[in-house]
Specification:
SH3 type barrels; mainly beta; six-stranded mixed sheet; 2 domains; 2 helices; six-stranded antiparallel β-barrel; Elongation Factor Tu (Ef-tu), domain 3
């Protein structure tokens, strides 16, 4: 049986720190989340494993900028460049029925009936639909016509062999 990754995922990456903006320590944020407004109500966030209080979040020209307490100059801001912004899993945005986090799908065993095809090693974002990469050599479109069921609790995905 596959070890469950779900219990191992304690933090979720929602962004990456880009370049410093200005002289006051404000940082450009590269969002790595599908949830618009994810940064709006942040009070605290982990940046590279260190917790920071969020002083302000601004949207300028379609870009996100965050000012952290204690990061008050360009040099201290530069020290955070390229670090990931993470939140606790419990603070993840709620999902609708039939939606799953990519980190929950990765590690699931994929079955075609009783035949095990392998384990999801990656989820490719194609634009039109996601594609499950299984053991690095099988690509399965994440479409309702192909994927019969996804059971995150048991880490199993059932697919229809005739549909892919």
């Amino acid at each position: 049986m596959t070890k469950s990754l779900q219990s191992e995922v304690k933090e979720i990456i929602i962004g990456k720190v880009g370049a410093a903006r200005g002289l006051d320590g404000t940082l450009k944020i590269i969002p790595l989340t599908d949830f618009e407004g994810r940064f709006d109500d942040l009070e605290k966030i982990s940046v590279g494993g260190k917790i920071f209080n969020v002083e302000s979040v601004k949207y300028i020209g379609g870009q996100i900028f965050i000012k952290f307490e204690g990061v008050d100059n360009r040099e201290s801001a530069r020290a955070l460049t390229n670090k990931f912004l993470t939140i606790d899993r419990k603070d993840a945005a709620p999902l609708d029925d039939g939606e799953f986090y990519i980190f929950d799908v990765i590690g699931c065993e994929v079955f075609d009936g009783d035949k095990k095809l392998g384990i999801v090693t990656n989820v490719l974002r194609t634009g039109s639909n996601d594609v499950f990469e299984v053991d690095g050599n099988i690509l399965i479109p994440a479409l309702k016509s192909v994927v019969k069921s996804i059971d995150i609790a048991s880490k199993k995905i059932l697919v229809d062999e005739n549909a892919y």
